[in-house]
Amino acid sequence: MPRVAVDLLSYTGTKGGMETYARELYREIGRQGSEFEFVGLASREGYQLDRSWFPGEMVDTGISGENRFIWAYGELFQVARQAKRHGADLMHSPATLGPARSSMPSVVTMHDMLYWSNPELMTTPLYTAPVKLMERLTSRNATRVLTISEVSRAEIEKYLHVPRARIDLVPLAGTMPTIDGDRDPDQKHPFVLATGNRRPHKNWASLIRALPLLLEHERPRLVITGSHGDDPLQAVVEETGMQDWVELKGWLTSEELGELYRRATIMAMPSFVDGFSLPALESMMVGLPVMMSDIPVYHEVCGDAALYLDPTSLDSIASVMRTAVTRPDEMRRLAAAGLEQAERFSWERTATQTLETFRRALTV
């Protein structure tokens, strides 16, 4: 029985979408069953979290996933040795980065190439060059590369020079939000929901700055979740005078977020660039309409089931928000189209195709 070591050094409970991917992928792999057995190489922090989703043994590597320097050294030079020590025949690194060298075949899931395509939008410019080096070394070592969108596949070819024949496109899927009851949008106080970290490419500030362009009777409230600690968007709220219209929330429980999905008028993703959009997919799964930046990757996820906006234009953003508040017929159409679009994605398919990539890597 082939043994797969899963590199979970970056899994610490604070990383958002990539952690959702690892957790839901391996939960589904466990449901399906296969000829593989799995050992999870956990960060020190991740080992303290719930591990019931992993379909095999999980071990504490003793490597911190929160200390950037310890983590980077662990990814490049330690995790492959630990995989060998645990008798692995194959390694999977599900969070873009992995070993610089391994004695066994390696599969890495590279979610996006944002440090290459848009370095000016990264939160920590000092880390841009090191991350690019790590991505280059990881991709050179990888037997096969998994990625989640056509946009990311093209950029992996462009920036890392990985031949297309070594890249497998396996889209993500959504996880049904925890909602207590049916969708019931707040008619008296309509609101736009936005959820995600505060990295610059997410462009949340433009949602806030577009609000004053709307007359009060057509202006929605705005709820933005997902911050850790002091929220940098607070300064934008004060600058625009939108304190009565914007609510900034931190990291929410699934139940708290589910209630927002249930009551929101529309979900907004005004990003300049992205690798996918799990929040959009999960919104469509429950019939919550979505307003998305008019960028290729969002068309891959949402198709015709979205209102598209120009993320560089406050007028465009304001216009779409106005439509969300004043056109209930359009919201009903988008809700129905979104439910249909979301059915094209499933963790079952993601897991099945990922296991097929593992088999390809082992036959090289």
Describe the protein's architecture and organization:
With 364 residues, the protein is an alpha/beta fold. It has 2 domains: 3-173 and 346-362, Rossmann fold (3-Layer(aba) Sandwich), CATH 3.40.50; 191-342, Glycogen Phosphorylase B (Rossmann fold, 3-Layer(aba) Sandwich). The protein is built from 13 helices and 13 strands. The protein has helices at 17-32, 68-85, 114-117, 128-141, 150-160, 204-210, 234-240, 254-263, 278-285, 296-302, 314-326, 328-342, 347-362, and strands spanning 3-8, 37-42, 57-60, 90-93, 106-109, 144-147, 167-169, 191-195, 221-227, 246-250, 266-269, 290-293, 307-309. The protein has a 7-stranded parallel β-sheet, with helices on both faces. A 6-stranded parallel β-sheet has the order 10-9-8-11-12-13, with helices on both faces. Helix 1 packs across helix 13 (347-362), helix 6 (204-210) crosses helix 11 (314-326) and helix 9 (278-285) packs across helix 12 (328-342). The longest helix is centred in the first third of the chain and has 18 residues, at 68-85. It is globular, with a radius of gyration of 21 Å. The two termini are 17 Å apart. The mean pLDDT is 95.
